[in-house]
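Supplementary Note 2. Why include the ligand at all?

Several targets in our set were suspected to adopt different conformations when bound, so apo predictions alone were not considered sufficient. For every target with a known small-molecule partner we therefore ran a joint prediction. The input for HT7 is given below.
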Amino acid sequence: QAEIRLAEYKPPVFLVDTVELDFDIRDDRTRVSSRLAIRRNPESAERNAPLVLNGQGQKLVAVRVDGRELAAGDYVLTDKTLTIRAVPDEGVVAIESDNDPAANTALMGLYAAGPMLCTQCEAEGFRRITYFPDRPDVQSRYRVAIHADEDRYPVLLANGNLVENGKEAGGRHYAVWEDPFRKPCYLFALVAGRLDKVADRFLTRSGREVLLEIYTEPGRSSETGFAMAALKKAMRWDEERFGREYDLDRFMIVAVSFFNFGAMENKGLNIFNDARVLGRADTATDADIAFFERVVGHEYFHNWSGDRVTCRDWFQITLKEGLTVFREQEFVGDMNSPAQERLRTVSVLRRVQFPEDAGAMAHPIRPASYQAVENFYTATVYSKGAEVIRMIQTLVGREGFRKGLDLYFERHDGHSATCEDFVRAMADANAIDLGQFMRWYAQAGTPVLDVTSRYDADSRAYTLEVEQRCPATPGQDTKEPFHMPLRLGLLDARGGDMKGDMVLKLRRPRETFVIEDVPEKPIPSLLRDFSAPVRLNYDYTDAELLVILAHDSDGFNRWDAGQKLFAKYALSGEALPDAFVTALRTVLMDKDLEAGTKAMTLTLPGEEELGLALIARGERIDPVAVCEKRRRVIKALAGALSGELWATYREIAAGLDEEASDGVARGQRSLKNLCLAYLHRAEPGKVAPVAARVVSGARNMTDKIACLDILVDGDAALAARALAEFAETFAGQPSIMDKWLGVQAAERHAGVLEKVRRLMAHKAFSLNNPNRVAALVGVFAGNPFGFHAEDGSGYRFVADVVERLDRLNPQAAARYAKPFLRWRDFDAGRQALMQEALRKLAALESLSINVREVVTKALG
Ligand code: HT7
Ligand code: ZN
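The joint prediction is reproduced in token form.
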């Protein structure tokens, strides 16, 4: 399979000004008839090139050009394209083809999601619905007619405004939708089914009333409350923070139970994975509920950053995704706690993106080439992309950023754009040079800052030497230095800020900064607020880190100092010093600190982060040993803080409303459950009965799952009873049963594989549904005792699932091939076993491009 390269971009040969689509939905197939008003693109240099339409996975029925039906010899049809040579420079091409949504297990294009039909077109799904120039730089106006049986599909939706509907013969009905905005075909959407609906209204700041509708499968509309509230908050916030108003009269969300991703920002008709939008405190965990606000906001914000201004090509995904993740993070921070949101963001970045950026498929936020574009909806493109946007905001300031964003939207509204367009708008609006900054878009790898310092008491000058380097990544042996902001402060011995916040602008491989008039030898508080996505080395003493942990005015560095100490003691095996325990006790008992922040501060770096710390020291990872080291620290801490942990647990448990799931309640619940999980390491006999009572008695799903986790991690008899009772209670609710699957797949015991194998045959599991697969196989793939079992059984099992899943859903299958990309990080025995599993996959003849790309790059 050839690499598709950014450098080879060419403008489209033909444009399509209008698209008329007619969907005739029948039991055995859906006939799609299109009328495309095409014209040659004056910007294309290929003056005589034929019309080449993408198309796959459908049966071509007829092709007409300006009303004349073409004979088979008038066009060339392959399994990927339809080429028509004899086309006028401007005219109408009409095509009929048949789709089989029930057979579409890849969940791209038009597919059956349980009882309903829906579409997913990003990135290249539209070509599975009809023949079309399926690329984001072709933008058109759409008119869509849908015909279907009224009883089976009473609701018929598409983008834009409903302009007509009515009855047809034979118990059928139809609806016609028109979208007044030009859009690329990846934003097209259609839904048909028997759906419940919840409606509300939003008054925009200019006084227009917008109808808000959330559609669900029958019986789930009572689970839309959080999403509707989040939607209204997001609409208001985007007006206030970025001056962006909604532009259609109607905004619809549909929750579907089969979906490859979290959600999709189709113009005016967002389609959501039901796990990302539906739930109450008794059916979803706090983590799920917090995610609703995030994802609803994210998709809504795409209306401007993605839909109104879209990408020229799929290399520019970060243009819309990095920017929209940044907007989402700002929104979630403003709605809850900005400090906690930053901690969450950075820990996800370090846990997921840093390893990706050091792995066999490391790529810049704008990749230079790909084989299967779906493999590039990555943490790098999304999360590191958002950090790159955040760095621009740090460099130009919040006001400057707003000016730049306004200019970007003004210049490119209604068009497709590139990352250069975005950065140019920022540079022009702020009269700064961001030429060097563009390297963030082209170079992969996590840069490393090595910082040293000296203080001269006589001159009161403090000197910082900062060296930057970036490790080699595939295809990029050497890197040019990055332009980045390094935010810092200087603390006195008691942790007081001596100089306030400063931002150094790094540009060169090695730079010296002298800060004058520093009254005493400072403790530097470096990389405040995590001002750049880098790893920073500075030789702190434990005592200095304790001062930062206790006193720094920067919440991020306070938290990070604790993380550094935790990592040090976990990996070295040293006993926790009293001073550290005392500092953590102070955090836990602090009356003024938010519970959520306490929970994050007391949470050890995850197994992945500890593994990465080993890699940074030039060592290889034994994941089971890392898990045990981490547990040892938790046990020691729980032993030392037992009284305080029990007191905190009891106090919160007594006062917390089970039905509350706002940010404060979520924070309190996370602290309460953290206390219990820690105590379970030190006092299992005392904690297990408490946990068992919660699993059977609590109505709150977060508490139930947290305690189920505790039981599964410990007492086998209590766990078996609790799991059985849970399964009986929630048998008919697949998204709750996903949690049941996940808890068992996460069990950190040898032998977890056997349980997972058995669960694959359970009626709650199906390989056809991505949420079920994520719950069982995805969680197992992150379990050191499962995936990384020393005998290689976990690797063989996951590779086997990849092979089977690939026949159904290549996108989902590729996701589970990705953990193998990191084989070089593990000890020699595991490396060999992981490579063996990869080679076995590579030898298969019928792999999809998606999985093949991952496997070959992993081995390459
Ligand atoms: N923009 C959306 C991406 C997406 C997607 C990509 C590949 C395959 C399936 C997909 N479903 C949705 C989601 C977002 O980032 O907002
Ligand atoms: Zn997005």
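Residues 298, 302, 321, 324 surround zinc ion (ligand 2) (CB under 6 Å). The longest strand covers residues 172-184. Comparable summaries for the other entries are listed in the accompanying table.
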